[in-house]
Amino acid sequence: KCLPLEHTASRQIHAYLSRNFCQTLDCQARLEQHLQQHTQKLPTIVWVSLIGIAGFLIFALTVCCVEYSDDVLKLFVGAGLISTDVERRVTRARETTRRRVGMDRTKG
Q: Any idea what the Cα angle at residue 29 is, between residues 23 and 33, rounded to 5°?
């Protein structure tokens, strides 16, 4: 034990700690403490897996939106979410940016 009861000083410390921290808890608080310590938490590997899957889904969605941006814009226009004017401005801005950066749509 950390506090052997043979010595007077350690016996006093043991009595103080027991009186202030152990005996002040009622049965309901002890039961709650026991349940918190013994309930199984979600393992870390599950959290890491969920975060990895979510990251992959966000990455895949981003790649699809960039690769198929024309189709996405047409879908939004067809659904009435954006106007054709907004579609033209977005397309024009995208093409201007590609020209300035030096990226063409054609591979070669």
A: 105
Alpha helices per DSSP H over 1-108: 8-17, 27-38, 44-67, 69-79, 84-101
The pLDDT of residue 69: 82
Q: Are 15 and 5 in contact (CB under 8 A)?
A: no
pLDDT at 72 over 90: no
Q: Taking the CB of residue 76, how many other CB atoms lie within 10 A of it?
A: 15
With a CB cutoff of 8 Å and minimum separation 6, the contacts of 69 are 94
Reply yes or no on whether the pLDDT at 107 is more than 60. Answer: no
How long is the chain? Answer: 108
Question: Which pLDDT score, from 0 to 100, does residue 104 have?
Answer: 67
